[in-house]
Design goal:
The complex is a heterotrimer. By secondary structure, chain B is α/β, with parallel strands linked by helices. Chain B has 11 helices and 12 strands. Classes of the chains: A alpha+beta, B alpha/beta, C alpha/beta.
């Protein structure tokens, strides 16, 4: 089933997550990324010259962001409080929208047209990444969770809860986007 | 190298149009003149009365007269018009729509710049069909021009060298749309803009020009400085596309630069004086954005 | 009527077939096809696997080799043709006359479709391609009304395919150099229009400004949708008024016209969007499959909810209704 707009996490989630330290998140992120990359090695063929670019992922409804470097040899993802200014490109939007891009629940173009997502910087790199990920057919929640071992259960619960959040916060999209722009 | 005057793309009205061609016949050092309505079939009836006089005057002045076809035919009337034109039996016809070629095969004809000839294979096909002249699409870079011209030495390869560059053709009339008129009841508002209607960006920068169903660049192509390279590429003729300026003077500048009687730099200054409103570009020929000038 | 659907990746091809496509069109990942976008399209190996997959699912694969070969480099396009034939493509979609000539001479049994990029907009043009290259189907340009399409089908000695959904070219396809005027990259030569490499968005106060190369294409207020800065769908200003001078950033949706298109004798319906995600393709293909089933069983056609997927978030029936002109 095709979804047209991503839900935005309620402000409560943001508040709840804000005081959490980022350091423990780091090994978990690395595990997820390596698991996904390991299962989808052909992802990099589509990235071509864009594989070394540094791309910021900014979930506007969460109190932290990510820097992704989709290199074939040593792909990296890092959680940060604030995105550094020298990235090649940034993608901002509700966390559920960003995840939905990865597992194909949402059409990225439509999210950009509707301004649920904002893309800045190297458009070509973002397009290549989007197309590479779209072809990889990644089950983000399943694969990422599987890589977390004992933490799989709680992680899935959190992500699925974020996805469902729109039921409790149907009208907060506009405010979130404004907060970003 | 020869000089060709392309068809008037704008709706000038019969009086201005006739006087323009009479002056061309008398004063412009061009070898060939392409005449006919290319953009909009609704305009053609305006010129019916003066058309024979113009053709006669040009032919009498020793110009090769070539009759241009419409660029986009969709209506039965337009198809008939195209078939009649192709069957005229007196003058060479320049096809600006593939439809016209269906009537011209095996007879000597010309291919206009609005038919897609991007490579030597397409040029070879047209040459086998009877094309004697091919004016290449304006967006082609010099390398492509050279490859095509050199592969077909028996076909006169022509390049769009002066004028607002035709960039697109549509079924929709932008003049009518802008004036909130239906295309079928357009009141010929395009006639109010004899050099095209400027389309600016929201920042006020000059960008494009609309001419009924056609979109052109706002800038004016000038390949005056590229003439040695074009000649070396094997180009046989340059096309000057009529703008609202003294086109006989434009032709004279090109002629002098082509003959070595005038340096390109000085020619450029002369051209700027003849057409002071113009900003010149040659980006397409140089393999860059068409809006660039090097 | 046959439902012809886009695929920019093997995953999208499988999604399209799963959602009910009769045929999928796609291209090699290079300048030989008109959607030469980063990260998109098929390697030779992927094309072979995808054709095998499609055939196992009783679907066809139409390979688009529909840019205009660069002079002096036509071998790249000829190799694409040869490979597509070897890989078992059900048809090739070609626009360039030199390349059509090559296919007709070298692979006389290969089914050939005339690409929309050839903009064959009348029976004489179509007959030219049928007579010279034995083209079996013409993809009609998006400049014709339904009545004109019906007239063409009465005259034409080949099948016709028309676009029913997706991005709408306002200009006659394959006859537009607006993109290369602004960026140096054209649909005809490079397989891109208003390419991402030349696109930028910039926040100016409350407004979001989209630019293509050196030119501002649009300026959006805070709550407006922000479609991609495709040149002909930008906002511009003239002495006689400003706004969407060429076309609103609306997408084509001809679902309501399916009965009229069937009655006009159309063979195949085409969905635009090889550059779009598989989520988009899945959604749109499924909606049109359901619409076709409704049409066949005489039920009313409902395709709501697709507007959200489109560029301007609104749709138009385009040139199919004559008033569009």
């Amino acid at each position: 089933m095709l979804r047209s707009r991503p839900p935005v996490a309620p402000p409560l989630v943001r508040l709840a997550l804000a005081p959490l330290p980022l350091a423990p998140l780091q090994p978990l992120l690395a595990l997820c990324l390596n698991a996904i990359v390991g299962r989808h090695p052909n992802l990099f063929d589509r990235l071509g010259a864009h594989a070394g670019k540094r791309i910021g992922l900014n979930p506007t409804d969460l109190p932290f962001s990510f820097v992704l470097v989709p290199r074939r040899a040593r792909p990296a993802i890092r959680a940060v409080r604030r995105l550094p200014p020298d990235l090649d490109a940034n993608i901002s939007g509700p966390f559920a929208g960003l995840i939905g891009l990865i597992d194909g629940a949402y059409d990225g173009d439509a999210l950009v047209f509707s301004r649920d997502l904002l893309v800045e910087g190297d458009m070509e790199a973002v397009l290549a990444l989007r197309n590479a990920i779209d072809n990889a057919e990644i089950d983000f929640v399943g694969e990422a969770a599987a890589s977390l071992g004992v933490l799989a259960g709680p992680a899935q619960v959190i992500v699925r809860a974020l996805r469902r959040a729109h039921r409790s916060a149907p009208s907060s999209q506009r405010t979130t986007r404004r907060a970003w722009s | 190298m020869r000089l060709t005057l392309g068809p008037v793309l704008f709706h000038w009205g019969p009086q201005v149009w006739r006087d323009f061609y009479f002056r061309i016949a008398d004063e412009a050092p061009v070898d060939a003149v392409v005449v006919g309505e290319v953009v909009c079939s609704k305009r053609a009836p305006f010129y019916g009365d003066v058309f024979p006089d113009v053709i006669e005057r040009l032919a009498a002045a020793g110009k090769d007269v070539i009759l241009a076809s419409l660029a986009l035919a969709t209506l039965p009337r337009e198809r008939r018009q195209m078939a009649e034109l192709a069957g005229n039996g007196l003058f060479m016809v320049e096809a600006n729509d593939v439809a016209c070629l269906q009537h011209l095969a095996k007879r000597p004809h010309a291919i206009g710049p609005l038919v897609n000839v991007y490579n030597e294979a397409t040029a070879a096909f047209f040459a086998r069909q009877g094309a004697r002249r091919i004016c290449l699409p304006p967006e082609l870079p010099l390398q492509s021009i050279a490859a095509i011209a050199q592969s077909e030495p028996n076909v006169l390869t022509e390049v769009f060298a002066f004028g607002n560059v035709p960039l697109a053709i549509s079924a929709r009339c932008y003049h009518a749309r802008l004036h909130k008129l239906a295309k079928d009841n357009c009141r010929f508002v395009c006639g109010n803009d004899p050099d095209g209607l400027a389309v600016d960006t929201l920042d006020g920068e000059r960008f494009l020009a609309i001419n009924g169903v056609q979109t052109l660049s706002h800038t004016c192509a000038s390949l005056l400085g590229d003439i040695p390279d074009l000649a070396a590429a094997g180009v046989g003729a340059l096309r000057l596309s009529p703008q609202l300026c003294d086109m006989a003077a434009v032709a004279l500048v090109f002629r002098d630069v082509m003959d070595g009687a005038c340096e390109a730099g000085h020619g450029h200054e002369l051209l700027a004086a003849v057409y002071p409103e113009a900003r010149f570009t040659n980006g397409f020929a140089r393999g860059m954005a068409g809006a660039e000038y090097v | 009527m046959e439902l012809v659907c886009p695929a920019g990746t093997p995953a999208a091809l499988r999604a399209a077939i799963g959602a009910g496509a009769d045929a999928v069109y796609c291209g090699f990942s290079d300048e030989t096809n008109a959607r030469n976008f980063p990260g998109l399209n098929f390697s030779r190996e992927e094309m072979g696997e995808s054709i095998a997959y499609a055939h196992a699912e009783k679907a066809k694969v139409l390979v688009a080799i529909n840019t205009f070969p660069r002079a002096g480099a036509t071998a790249i396009w000829r190799r694409a043709v040869d490979d597509a034939v070897d890989l078992g493509a059900d048809a090739l979609i070609v626009a360039d006359i030199g390349l059509l000539d090559y296919v007709a001479r070298t692979h006389p049994h290969q089914r050939l479709h005339l690409s929309v990029q050839a903009a064959a907009a009348n029976p004489d043009s179509i007959q030219f391609y049928v007579d010279n290259f034995a083209v079996r189907r013409v993809v009609l340009p998006r400049v014709l009304s339904v009545a004109e399409i019906a007239a063409i089908n009465l005259d034409a000695s080949c099948e016709t395919e028309v676009f029913v959904f997706g991005g709408l070219c306002v200009m006659a396809e394959g006859r537009c150099s607006l993109s290369s005027y602004a960026t140096g990259q054209s649909p005809n030569m490079h397989g891109v229009c208003s390419p991402a490499s030349h696109v930028s968005y910039r926040q100016e106060g409350d407004a979001l400004v989209s630019r293509l190369g050196d030119f501002t294409i649009n300026r959006f207020a805070a709550d407006e949708p922000a479609p991609y800065p495709t040149l002909c769908k930008g906002r511009f200003s003239t002495k006689s008024g400003s706004g969407y001078i060429f076309e609103d950033p609306a997408s084509l949706d001809a679902a309501a016209l399916l009965p009229a298109l069937r009655d006009a004798g159309v063979t195949a319906l085409k969905i635009e969007g090889r550059q779009r995600s598989r989520a988009y393709i899945e959604g749109v293909v499924r909606a049109f499959r359901e619409a076709l089933e409704a049409l066949d069983s005489g039920r009313p056609i409902v395709t709501s909810g697709l507007a959200r997927m489109t560029e301007g978030q609104t749709t138009t029936s385009g040139a199919y209704r004559k008033s569009w002109r």
